[in-house]
# Entry
Amino acid sequence: MCLSSSIGTVSLVPQKKPSTVDSQVGNRVRVRRMLLGMSQERLGELLGLTFQQVQKYEKGTNRIGAGRLYQIAQILGVPIDYFYEGAEPQVNNSAATVSPPVAEFLSSSEGLQLAMAFTQIRSTKLRRRVVELVRTMADEEKEI
# Structure
């Protein structure tokens, strides 16, 4: 239902927010796609979609149907249950949940790139130095 006025059209239908499961599935699509070095454009081409649709799937704005999720799993080379790993059973979809910092970090482009580069460092001593450098930088950031 919409109301029209001289200011424009106002929707009385509440805007639907993505469920935590939709967000989880979309995030897992994004992480896997990025791990493979695949662009949203390429995934969209393989699915017959625009990159904007892929963006909406990854943000959880649009739900991914069962058939489409199956296609995505095939393209990304993972089983369907990969997209649900770590998902909490939902008793009440209206309950707001906050992403753990590690999941949030790994879902960012920079976080994923940093994690992938870090895992390529074989020296334990060098890894510790990198961690210490990042800690120092974070502490200095707090002081600013």
The chain has seven helices and two strands. The helical segments are 20-35, 40-47, 51-59, 66-76, 101-107, 109-119, 124-143. The radius of gyration is 20 Å.
